[in-house]
Amino acid sequence: MIKIIEHIPTAEEYNKVSLNVGWGVRPDEIVTLALQNTLISVCAYDDGELVGYGRIIGDGATFLYVQDVMVKKEYQSQKIGTGIIKKLLECMEKYWKINPSIRLYLGAALGKEDFYKLFGFVVREEAGLGPGMIYRKK
Ligand SMILES: CC(C)(COP(=O)(O)OP(=O)(O)OC[C@H]1O[C@@H](n2cnc3c(N)ncnc32)[C@H](O)[C@@H]1OP(=O)(O)O)[C@@H](O)C(=O)NCCC(=O)NCCS
């Protein structure tokens, strides 16, 4: 039975899932700091094992970002990703109460746009906005 809860995982738990989906690992102290600075952290647990994760970061009032949505390979296609996004959106309610026009952004990995479209996300082009950009430090 998979449990989807708002909870901050340990760096070790996070890195295990990240490694499993091919995103590698970051030093524990970096991950711990990042997770502490996160607004909404959602974990999917199978009998105490972290099998999926997603989080929302941002200023809590105007601009928020969905990050790190990941489900372990052997647990994919079982609606766990769906459960994580739904829980993240449920947890967003308190921020929409503060500011109903808060912007919730998302940088989808290549080919993952259709997954997010299921939950109401649109590609920026469809919203009449320019493409998302990223800073590449030299
Ligand atoms: C993307 C990911 C989070 C989806 O999680 P999941 O638990 O496998 O997804 P679900 O079982 O909830 O799938 C829900 C729906 O999304 C669809 N879907 C899943 N992955 C998809 C993809 N890559 N592209 C398009 N649709 C996708 C499924 O077909 C399913 O549709 P259905 O309801 O019609 O059957 C997961 O595959 C993953 O962790 N991938 C590796 C990490 C990654 O790339 N994350 C996205 C970062 S932006």
Mean pLDDT, rounded to whole units?
Answer: 97
CATH class: Alpha Beta
Stated plainly, the CATH topology is called Aminopeptidase
- Main β-sheet, in a few words? 5 strands, mixed
Shape: globular
Widest beta sheet: strand line-up: 1-2-3-4-5
How many DSSP H or I helices? 4
Percent helix range: 25-40%
As a whole number of angstroms, the C-alpha radius of gyration is 15 Å
- Give every kind of bound small molecule, once each: coenzyme A
Beta-strand level of the residues, as a percent range?
Answer: 25-35%
CATH architecture: 3-Layer(aba) Sandwich
Distance between the termini: 46 Å
Q: What class do helices, strands and sheet pairing give?
A: alpha+beta
Following the backbone from N to C, one meets helices and strands in this order, namely: EHHEEEHEH
How many separate domains?
1
- Give the uncertain stretches in residue-range form: none
Number of strands: 5
